[in-house]
Amino acid sequence: MSEDHGLTVIEASARLGMSPKTIYRWIRENKVKAWRITEGNHEKWYIDLENVLDNGLALSKANEQDVLVEKDMVLYNLREELATLRVLLREKDAQIHELRALLQQQEQLAEPNRHPWWAFWRRQ
């Protein structure tokens, strides 16, 4: 957060647990105090979070609980996917180990005195 500018739209949306599109809509509808600052070639919108909270535009307690439950479900699903990927990774590691062992066996079976095909004058 930039202390002298306020919150960017992305920061505000993350704090409030809502889409940046909602924040931009509030800016368009003049529901929040916002200002645009040019930084280099880019323009950024900043808002006053206290203004948002004072106007009652932030999430209600029920919506906050819904957002928390949804985030918990996403976290649970990510953990499940991570566990699955770890199992798959272990299986792939075992396959790689087995393939390396087979490759070593194949190299041992190859003829040790074999000359390249183009070195016909070395053949005995």
Question: Which features characterize this protein?
Answer:
single chain, mainly alpha, Multidrug-efflux Transporter Regulator, Chain: A, Domain 2, 3-stranded antiparallel sheet, 4 helices
Task: Give your account of this protein's structure.
It is a single chain. This protein has about 120 residues and is mostly helical. It folds into two domains: about 1-60, Multidrug-efflux Transporter Regulator, Chain: A, Domain 2; about 60-110. Helix content is about 60%, strand content about 10%. Strands 1-3-2 form a three-stranded antiparallel beta sheet. A hairpin with a 2-residue loop joins β2 and β3. The longest helix is centred in the C-terminal third of the chain and has 49 residues, at about 60-110.
How do you describe this structure in short?
The chain is mainly alpha-helical.
Topology:
Layout: E1 7-8, H1 9-16, H2 20-28, E2 34-39, E3 42-47, H3 49-54, H4 61-109
Antiparallel strand pairs: 1-3, 2-3
Fraction of residues in helix: 55-70%
Total helical elements: 4
Distance between the termini: 80 Å
Main β-sheet: number of strands, strand sense, barrel status?
3 strands, antiparallel
Gross morphology: elongated
Beta fraction? 5-15%
Count of strand segments: 3
Return Rg in Å. 31 Å
Top-tier CATH class of the largest domain: Mainly Alpha
Structural class: mainly alpha
Oligomer: single chain
Strand order of the largest sheet: 1-3-2
Count the domains.
2
As for the CATH topology of the largest domain, it is: Multidrug-efflux Transporter Regulator, Chain: A, Domain 2
Mean pLDDT: 79
